[in-house]
């Protein structure tokens, strides 16, 4: 009978995944995280009243984040990746709620959930990119993704500080919840599918320590990790100690937010760095930029607390060169990793972010016991010099 006919339910076709798909997702994620990137260290400083204690706090949180990253393949192997990505978005919103308590416990909880959310989102998004984008297009896609995130990382830090100082914590961290909700809606609209190679199954999950050994046994993966770790150390230092430098020297929290926003505004140059890498070779560009970072970090360390605005200007120049590594650096990993090892190796690779949150504050907490804030930038400059040499010496010319 005609009444028993089941008519099809028409759904709009999801867009074909491409560079703009992943750029849009990353842009919304950037807004969700960037809006409080300057508020969090200032809030921590107001609770602890000492930059050395802030360093210890960041070290503690990063150590927790590192363990989450190492264990994250268990989530990817056990559950469909779309649910893991959605969980990462929820973590960002829960972290925002924790910050509202204005207590040390709440601060720690907020930072931990924020790190957990960033970890899960980073790993799953990278897996989606490697599934849907050809290897020859990685450099272009990464540069576009960085450029699209520019708006969030430019507006977010200053907007967050303004909302925090004028309207309080609820409004400042409420922005994170709003953008997290928008990100979740957009992600489900795209309906990205899981690659059958990494679809969850019934086989036991690999030992995380075995994944680390497997990663460390591959020279190209080790080199890709060091490159990513070097540039991520700068961003950790810039986001945390840039605002603190402005507050300690009396320039104010708004100056700290403006400094971070100005550095992030330079992300629009990522597309240009992508073209430079294709024209002159990624190895030449990345090694040269590490060298330029070293020079500007030494200059910022020399200016230090005596000339905070001058130090801030040198940090901005350093950020310009660091963005080249954001645009080009991940290509070294994406081209080297084997398809069947992507979930495990991506999780190990992602530890560069956790260790860049863990090790620099740990080292700085010791150095700050003897020297001023300028020593933080000088110490980082020594390490970026080493990264530049390593990149020039071992990264293949074909990159």
3D architecture notes:
- 78% of the residues lie in helices and 0% in strands.
- It has 17 helices and no strands.
- The chain has helices spanning 19-34, 39-48, 51-78, 81-99, 104-132, 138-148, 150-167, 169-190, 208-216, 219-248, 253-265, 270-280, 282-303, 308-336, 342-349, 351-367, 374-394.
- Helix 3 packs across helix 5 (104-132).
Provide keyphrases for this structure.
mainly alpha; 78% helix; disordered N terminus; Growth Hormone, Chain: A; 399 residues
List the helices and strands and how they pair.
Layout: H1 19-34, H2 39-48, H3 51-78, H4 81-99, H5 104-132, H6 138-148, H7 150-167, H8 169-190, H9 208-216, H10 219-248, H11 253-265, H12 270-280, H13 282-303, H14 308-336, H15 342-349, H16 351-367, H17 374-394
Helix pairs in contact: 1-5, 1-6, 1-7, 1-8, 2-3, 3-5, 3-15, 3-16, 4-5, 4-8, 5-15, 6-12, 6-14, 7-8, 7-11, 9-15, 10-11, 10-14, 10-16, 10-17, 11-14, 12-13, 12-14, 13-14, 13-17
Report mean pLDDT, rounded to a whole number.
82
Q: What is the CATH domain class?
A: Mainly Alpha
Would you list the SSEs in sequence order as H and E?
HHHHHHHHHHHHHHHHH
- For the record, the CATH architecture stands as Up-down Bundle
Give me the CATH fold name. Growth Hormone, Chain: A
Distance between the termini: 65 Å
Total of domains = 1
Q: Which percent range describes the beta-strand content?
A: under 5%
Radius of gyration, in Å, reads 21 Å
- State the shape: globular
**How many distinct helices?**
17
Instruction: Kindly report the name of the CATH homologous superfamily.
Output: MFS general substrate transporter like domains
Secondary structure: number of strands: 0
- Name the quaternary structure: single chain
Poorly predicted spans: 1-13, 196-205
Instruction: Please bin the fraction of helical residues.
Output: over 70%
* Global structural class: mainly alpha
The biggest sheet, with number of strands, parallel, antiparallel or mixed sense and barrel status, is: none
